[in-house]
Each structure stands twice: as structure tokens, then as C-alpha cells.
Amino acid sequence: MSDQVVTRFAPSPTGFLHIGGARTALFNWLYARGRGGKFLLRIEDTDRERSTPEATAAILQGMAWLGLDHDGEVISQFEGADRHAEVALQLLADGKAYKCFATQDEIAAFREQARAEGASTLFRSPWRDADATTHPDAPYVIRIKAPQEGATVIRDQVQGDVTIRNEQLDDMVLLRSDGTPVYMLAVVVDDHDMGVTHVIRGDDHLNNAARQMMIYEAMGWDVPVWAHIPLIHGPDGKKLSKRHGALGAQEYQAMGYPAAGMRNYLARLGWSHGDDEFFTDAQARDWFDLDGIGKSPARFDLKKLENLCGQHIAIADDAALRQEAEAYLAAAEQPALTQAQSTNLERAMFCLKDRARTFPELIEKAEFALTSRPIEPDQKAAKALNSVSDGILKDLTPHLQNASWSRESLEESLSAFCEARELKFGKLAGPLRAALAGRSVTPSVFDMMVVLGREEVLARLADAAELARSS
Length: 471
Fold this sequence. Notes:
By secondary structure, the chain is mainly alpha-helical. The chain has 4 domains: 6-76 and 232-302, Rossmann fold; 79-229, HUPs (Rossmann fold, 3-Layer(aba) Sandwich); 316-370; 379-470, Arc Repressor Mutant, subunit A, CATH 1.10.10.350. It has helices at residues 19-33, 53-66, 81-93, 104-117, 183-193, 206-219, 249-254, 259-268, 281-287, 302-315, 318-331, 339-348, 359-365, 367-370, 379-382, 387-401, 407-420, 425-437, 445-452, 454-470; strands spanning 6-9, 38-43, 75-76, 97-100, 141-144, 151-156, 160-165, 173-175, 198-202, 225-229, 232-233, 298-299. Strands 1-2-3 form a 3-stranded parallel beta sheet. Strands 4-5-8 form a 3-stranded antiparallel beta sheet. A hairpin with a 3-residue loop joins β6 (151-156) and β7. The chain is elongated. The mean pLDDT is 94. Keywords: Aminoacyl-tRNA synthetase, ATP-binding, Cytoplasm, Ligase, Nucleotide-binding, Protein biosynthesis.
């Protein structure tokens, strides 16, 4: 086996990138990236009726949003069908597989009789050791010769050693009667040919490992390191499904969760590093290991996700955050920002990102920087604009015309203004919020003034004074 770690993510393109699949992809990505290895992507599109190009595109988009870059070209399992069949024919030539002429009706009759007798329904083909000269000129499948005695031990990095008695394994079909390879064969051949060293996947594939090991061993190939991870459950402890809400990775983008927060949360969903909850991508790559994965299903918790997302927004680079906010608006099919709005949003990030857990919250807080004059105050803010506030705002205007335009200077200037008029700052803050944002809950008035600039602030104050006079 290669010294270099090679992992893979192998989704079926029958729908979007499920949140469970996203976590599997993330675990594979972290394991490979943390060890200087390769992370490969294979689309398991052998089910031609259910596989669609749209689903493949949705999977790729979901991975791109999560920042899970893969090495090399995307591999199509369907396109490797000839190679998969070649391996089955090699096993047949080597005497490790055989032609089985049993019909579907014969197999069904055998199972029915076995059930009636209370015996095992595991089909034992009468053709396993048949003389080739007795073969009829009829359709056949190719079956592998499963070991019939002893046990197969799956040495799993998460589940521990799992032992399956070989008498429970049937002679699995490798090639159907029409010559097409089965999924189990395709997976093994692809993983071997791609040089995959570690198979990290959901524990619903655990039993498949024993059957796949038959092919590895019959071909004399190295068996990869297995790591079967528990599935994700909803808050009620039941398998995650549509009744728990959004399931696709891109749905979470459209709901406004930042990718870094989602990566952090998914990494913690079934894996732990001590008591660490919040961590960066670099830390996740350094820390991630298979022995940190738990054996029990993890529970999806939106509150924890939001909490982590808020922490990631708070530490994000302003320009990167603005770009991701704009990508959220596109994903949510919201109107795009103008160039001026985009510039203002980035300038305002310093006073927005500390308390926003999602992009809708961030955009909501940024309303003062995205809106344009004349500002229509909401009902609560409008109450702060009256004849008294009209006088205050009118007096404040010349005061601001000569003020130095930094947060510190503005604080000093407004404090001096309130002191000279024996006003509590709250009496000024309400009308100012209404004038600058049209709302009663906003970022700090000083921060808004810094973002908007002198000219825009004075224009908004003049508008508000006019509004106060006319109300």
C-alpha cells in the first residue's frame, strides 16, 4: 500500500449533497489534507435511471460552497464498466469465480422452500463446482467463490474489530447476465485503481466491507483501512430526514450559514478533540484523526450550528465576509447589491460581524449602510422624530460640520454637545438612529456615522429634521 494517504468521497448523483454526505466528504478531506495526502472524488453513477447531470452539478456546487477541493479529475464509475468486467473475468479465469446458470425462478423457489423448512435462505448455487463441460448454452451470471469456513474480520478504525462468520456470506454476483458489473465490484476496482488507502464512509456500509474484502483478497490486493462512521440523527434521536428541516448542503447556504461555521459544526458532529468546540480550518486539519470519531450517532442541533457560525463570522476577514454575504444573496435568490452597497457593506463589517450568527442577521444589521435616501423610518423609529428631536438634530448639524470624522472624535463631539444642552445621550441617540437608519435597533450611532461619512450623515439629518417638522 502507498505511503501517501489517499481518501475519496463517492456520492451517488441521485439528488443534492445530503448533510450526512457533506460530513463524510469533510472527514475524508480533513484526513487527507492533514497528512499531505490526496482527496479524490468519484461519482457513482452506475444507476443510469436515477443518476442525473443536475444531481452531479448540485453535489459539486455543495462541495465548492463548503470549500472541499478535490485532487485530479472527477471520476465517473459508469465509465469504468469495462475495467470492472475485466476483473470479474480475471477471477473467473483464475478459478476464483464461476458461471452460475440458476434462473431467478429457481432462486426464488429455493428461498421459498428454505423459509418453509426454517432453513437459511442464503442461496448456494449448484454451479459453484460444476464441470464446465456440463454448462448449458444459456444466460449466466458470474459469482465469486466466497470462503465457506472460518470468519472474516473487518478491522475498523471506528467500530473496532467486527467479525462475520463466512457461512453468512453468499457467492456474490460480480457480473449480471447482461455482462454489466454490480456496484460492489465497481467500488472495489475503483478504490484499488485510484490507490485509495483509507475508506471513510457511513456505517450503513459496514456489512458491505466483508463482501468487498472477498474481492480484494481474491485479487491479491491490499485491503484499505476501514473507518465506518455513525449516521447523523435529528434532535429527536431518529435518522435525519426531511421532517427535521433542510437536508442539502446548498439549502444551508441559502439559509445564510457561513461555510466556515458549517465546516466547524460538521467536523464536531461525531468527532471530538478534547473539549474544543470552536476551531479554525487549520486546527481541524491538524487535529482530525480517526480515533476521535465516536461510535454513537451524532444529533444535529441548529442552535449549536448558529452559535459556531456566529463565532466564525466574528473572526472573518471583512472582504471575504462581504463576498460570502453576496454569494448568500445569490443562493437565496435575493437581489444583488450595487457596487456602492457592496462597498458600504464591507466598510461596515467592523460594526456588524460581532453579533450576527447568519448572513440574514448580518444584512439586517447592515440596513443603514445599504439603504438610500430618503429613509422611511419604521413605526417605532418614527416616534423618536418629533418637534423636540427636530430642534436637537438642527442644532447638531453645524456641530458635526466642523467635527473631526473619527469614532473617537465623534464620541467626544456628541458628548460635549449633550453636556452643553444638559441632555442625556439617550435623548440624542433615539432621533439619531431614526435619522441614520430609520430603525430603533441599530449598530452604535458612532459606528454608523463613521461608515456613512460626513456628507451622507448631514443629508440624512436634514431629511429627518424635515420629516419631524411635517409630522
